[in-house]
Amino acid sequence: TALPAPAPTFDPHALPPLREVIARFGLDAKKSMGQNFLLDLNLTGRIARSAGSMTGITAIEVGPGPGGLTRALLATNAPRVIAIERDRRFIDALQDVVEASHGRLTIVEADALTVDPEQLAPAPRAIVANLPYNVATPLLLGWLARIEAYVSLTLMFQKEVADRLVAKPGSKAYGRLSVITQWRADARVLFNLPPRAFTPPPKVESTVVQLVPRANPEPAEWRILEKVTAAAFGQRRKMLRQSLKSLGDAEALLEQVGISPTSRAEEVDVAGFAALARAVQAREAANPPCP
Ligand code: SAM
């Protein structure tokens, strides 16, 4: 059988420096679009390589901006790179990269919140992105809901969000986002970056996190798990028998799944929340709400 053709080699340094591209196209950073650029190609190379082997995998990038990470992704074995950018100014600036990619790079002008990457890129696919922080969490939640469609997500977040994604029970950062994320994915921190790595520097530290779909997530319905975690962490200092009152007969529910009614949300692991969600679902199925 024929081996797949290797991806053509791409030299990120062969194109004009990113600072030059920014000056030539007048690409001053817009705060409203979460624009903090990575202009050091060694750094973008590090991020792209941290995604793991891209052989045979379509890379999806959200927010290519001036294209530092895009170039680095083209230097991996990814046969194709699909970059979704909302700010029209970058589309022209990226044309040089498109040309140098020999057909491997496609730029899609769109709001990543409204596009379905599965429609744009064939499987196997992986997302690698330095996310706009103002929409990072809604973007992640959208991808998590269909995480099985991806080999991995390698994403830059502000550190405080990254801490929540990987937080374990008993820690301050552990909350709804931790439970929903770790229910669907194995999430791990790859490395941190200081504000000065970016132009302009954001106010906060940043962290690259990798998320890989979990092989056997506990059965639960997304909508119900959201409802249960919202109730539990909405009053995180209270005992669960109190905070889950809105779900109706919280004590019975908790006893049914073997969680102490006097414990607090922070002490319950992902498996515990999934069991609670299944119990709520079973109850809803037995007593459907009036039409
Ligand atoms: N990848 C570039 C880098 O590392 O230098 C830029 C990263 S910057 C943090 C975020 C990028 O996402 C910007 O290019 C911005 O225009 C783009 N962006 C912001 N909101 C977006 C959205 N809703 N959909 C697609 N791209 C978006």
Automatic annotation (TrEMBL):
One of its GO terms (cellular component) is cytosol. It comes from the Bacteria. S-adenosyl-L-methionine binds at N36, L38, G63, E85, D111, N130. Its EC number is 2.1.1.182. It catalyses: adenosine(1518)/adenosine(1519) in 16S rRNA + 4 S-adenosyl-L-methionine = N(6)-dimethyladenosine(1518)/N(6)-dimethyladenosine(1519) in 16S rRNA + 4 S-adenosyl-L-homocysteine + 4 H(+). Pfam families: RrnaAD. One of its GO terms (molecular function) is RNA binding. Its main location: cytoplasm. Transmembrane segments: none annotated. Keywords: Cytoplasm, Methyltransferase, RNA-binding, rRNA processing, S-adenosyl-L-methionine, Transferase. Residues 43-215 form the Ribosomal RNA adenine methylase transferase N-terminal domain. Coiled coil: none annotated. The keyword DNA repair does not apply. Gene3D superfamilies: Ribosomal RNA adenine dimethylase-like, domain 2, Vaccinia Virus protein VP39. It is found in: Cytoplasm. Specifically dimethylates two adjacent adenosines (A1518 and A1519) in the loop of a conserved hairpin near the 3'-end of 16S rRNA in the 30S particle. May play a critical role in biogenesis of 30S subunits. Belongs to the class I-like SAM-binding methyltransferase superfamily. rRNA adenine N(6)-methyltransferase family. RsmA subfamily. HAMAP family: 16SrRNA_methyltr_A. This is Ribosomal RNA small subunit methyltransferase A. It comes from Azospirillum cavernae.
